[in-house]
Design a protein that fits this description.
Layout: E1 16-20, H1 25-36, E2 40-45, E3 54-57, H2 63-77, E4 82-85, H3 102-129, E5 133-138, H4 152-172, E6 177-184, H5 190-193, H6 197-205, H7 215-226, E7 237-240, H8 244-247
Parallel strand pairs: 1-2, 1-4, 2-3, 4-5, 5-6, 6-7
Length: about 260
């Protein structure tokens, strides 16, 4: 049985959950999973018509826009219980440190790291006002190991998200807000599908489960972290990666050049 076919259990009944990057694969699958479990979903994306009961088009790299976004959610839905800070990019001009421009570096840092900082800065006070909640920040398996396909700013940003999440986890656990980092492995996305055949093959060879994840498989991990079932999980690097980080075959950059 695929995760999307599992019976509803009401794990998020009545909880207001804000998902950034909600129009993407993991974000969209998570919005569906949250709604199926009784959540009131706020879908946030730079693109219009993000999935959710309340759909907001927001630039999450803009300080004032993020502050106003949470104020609007609180005003319309009364509370906020879960932040899934998932917005991110992996552009083709982010490559080797020798080739990546400063503009490309900063663009990735702004979307992948600055947005998480802003969403935590302006979102956590609303969780505190409601007595607590859960924050899930999307990092990546490359936060803990080198990427064979060089993407210097992406890898650095995801490492920073992981470190930020640990520190916030320590800071806020005592006041009822749990912060964790989600570290997905390779996911079935257009980016993966567009990789040249040899690169895609090596990616699969480095994944013990021998396939990429479906977005709804990652969404099930997000759902668990958002729910009270993970009430004792704080500051964790939650890897959902098919075994890449613990048993993947070593892939050197030289092998793929």
């Amino acid at each position: 049985m695929r995760p999307a076919e599992e019976a509803r259990t009401g794990r998020l009944d009545g909880k207001v959950c804000v998902i950034t990057g909600a129009s993407g694969g993991i974000g969209g699958a998570s919005a569906e999973a949250f709604a199926r479990e009784g959540a009131r979903v706020v879908g946030v994306d730079l693109a219009p018509d993000a999935p959710g009961e309340l759909s907001l088009q927001v630039d999450v790299t803009d300080d004032a826009a993020v502050r106003d976004m949470y104020a609007r959610v609180r005003g319309e839905l009364g509370r906020i219980d879960v932040l899934f800070n998932n917005a991110g990019i992996s552009p083709t001009d982010d490559g080797s440190v020798l080739d990546t421009s400063l503009e490309a570096w900063q663009r990735v840092q702004d979307v992948n790291l600055k947005s998480v900082f802003l969403c935590c800065k302006h979102g956590i006070p609303h969780l505190l006002a409601g007595g607590g909640g859960s924050v899930i920040n999307t990092a990546s398996f490359v936060a803990t190991m080198g990427a064979a396909t060089s993407q210097i700013s992406y890898s650095a940003s995801k490492g920073a998200v992981l470190s930020l999440s640990r520190e916030l986890g320590v800071q806020f656990a005592r006041v009822g807000v749990r912060v964790n980092a989600l570290c997905p492995g390779p996911v079935d996305t257009p980016f993966i599908a567009a990789l040249p055949g040899p690169w895609r093959q090596r990616l699969l060879e480095g994944t013990p489960i021998r396939r990429v994840a479906h977005a709804d498989e990652i969404a099930q991990a997000v759902l668990w972290l958002a729910s009270d079932a993970s009430s004792y999980v704080v500051g964790h690097n939650f890897s959902v990666d098919g075994g890449v980080t613990i048993g993947g075959a070593e892939t050197r950059v030289d092998d793929l050049m």
